[in-house]
## 1
Amino acid sequence: MESKATEGDTAPDVASQSIRAEFTHGLSEVALPVNDLRTAIDFYTKVVGLVLELQSDDGAFLWTGLTGQSQRLILATRQYLARGNAAGEVGRGVEWHHVHYAFQVPREKLEKAIKHLHRSGVAVSGPARFDLMKATSFYFRDPDGHLVEFWSPDPGVQSA
């Protein structure tokens, strides 16, 4: 049985609610392929403001919110990912492409965040308005070409 969301459809169906309650408790990590690990670490710590957790020759883990309490961003060299070390046989030889993802930024901090990106020499596009989600976003690219978004819900809007 296939369930498709339509515009204006905001509540997940009963099956997905029970699966989420049973198995998933949030996003643990997102892995990004990078060409130069040091450049990527510098960008995500000095420009985006993430906190470095662990680092090896092939990758790094960074906290995306409160240290130890939220999701992580993994920066992994393309060579490491191509060897399949990250996902075993499933990931071996897979071509990793550009990724799009968003960081949630409280509205009262959004202007300061965008000014920081500009001061850091990052080209920013936006604002983009999403009435359906009641949010405003700005977009920029990291040094490897991934599309990063600062997503900001309207004040008073509950977000995930």
## 2
Amino acid sequence: MKRLTIIIFLLFAFGMTVVIWGCEKSRVVIIEDTPGYKTPSPGPPPWAPAHGHRAKHKYYYYPATYIYFDVGRSLYFYLSGDQWRVSASLPVGIRINVAEYVVLEMDDDKPYKYHSDVAKRYPPGQQKKVDKENDKEKGKGKGKRD
């Protein structure tokens, strides 16, 4: 019985020593979740054609109506008031000219995030000018005669 009392006392003393020593060495560390600086990846801006660099989504952008069509998911993104909406079909009042679009390849699943940049790059009516310029350049390749 005496041995058992000594063993219990020693275990208790050892336990208290560990607790006191552990509390003395511990400290509270607060880690704040702040966004760090993200190094820009090489390649074109997120809204520009990526040509396979990192594109995951292909969109048809209709500059005249500011509408994006996600080819892979068959979704339309359109501006309604000051909110962007997503739909499998366009509302009755919105019509697009299916012949006048620009192909955009993006890494993002929300094309409207870069709309201000896209709208500057592809203003309404600009697509017709681009098509006319491309038509003028056709047939003037190497070995072609006027």
